Amino acid sequence: TAFPQIQAAPPDAIINKYFYAIGGKDKIAPIKSVHIENTVEAMGGEGPSTITILNGKGYRFDSEMNGNKITQVYTDKGGWAINPFMGSTTPQVVPDEVYKQNKERFDVGGPLFNYAAKGSKVVLDGKEAGAYKLKVTTADSIEMELYIDSATYNLVKLTSSASMMVQTMEVVTTFSDFKKSDFGIVFPNTTEISFGGQFDITSRIKKLDINQEVDPKIFEMPKS
User: Rounded to an integer, what distance in angstroms lies between the CA atom of residue 182 and that of residue 12?
Assistant: First the structure.
């Protein structure tokens, strides 16, 4: 694909080419919801997972691994989770810092979409292994680094920090196997997440639906 000559100062020129590569901002703007069915591999096991996003309102992740069910929910009001691997088999409100680190999950456009309007700052932090390195600082002072491939302009890697079990660790997310969906947006079909090098999760998309009806009640924390 020949990329248009977009007149903008870095990093905006790179960001504009990224959105052009994945289908265009005009394709992302009308997205109200995303529902993904995945196969997840972690800790020697494999299981199904689903992700449901209601744009700007809520994100829900459900997975089953080795007989244990995990749920993570982040909304525009707060977050809660059920995670037996972290010792909680009942819904628990997530700490404020964890919420801030994850609230971009219910933004289907991602951290670069209309970033200035959201109060984020982006700087070009050089080039590494054939990718432009963009450092994003959100309005909540959460920092992450996004790596945009200089040939394809796909987002190939994202690094951030996460608070887990009273410690902070670096989380490295790698994206690959890019395919254009029926909706016209390019999605990575394989996502690998490494938590501080201690454990890894690989998820592969089986089914992707855009703009199907989502009941907002799925994001409500169950009464225990």
Answer: 27
Question: What is the CB-side half-sphere exposure of residue 116 using CA atoms within 13 A?
Answer: 4
How many residues are recorded in the chain?
224
Scored b (16 or more CB within 10 A) or e, 33-51 reads: bbbbebebbbeeeebebeb
Instruction: Give tens-digit pLDDT for 94-145.
Output: 999 889 989 899 999 999 999 999 999 999 999 999 999 999 999 999 999 9
* 52-94 pLDDT, tens digit each: 999 999 999 999 988 889 999 999 999 999 988 777 789 999 9
pTM score, whole prediction: 0.89
Query: 197 burial class (0-12, 13-18, 19+ CB within 10 angstroms)?
Result: exposed
First to last CA, the chain: 53
Residue partners of 129: CB distance under 8 A and separation at least 6: 147
Under DSSP, is residue 23 helix (H, G, I), strand (E, B) or coil? coil
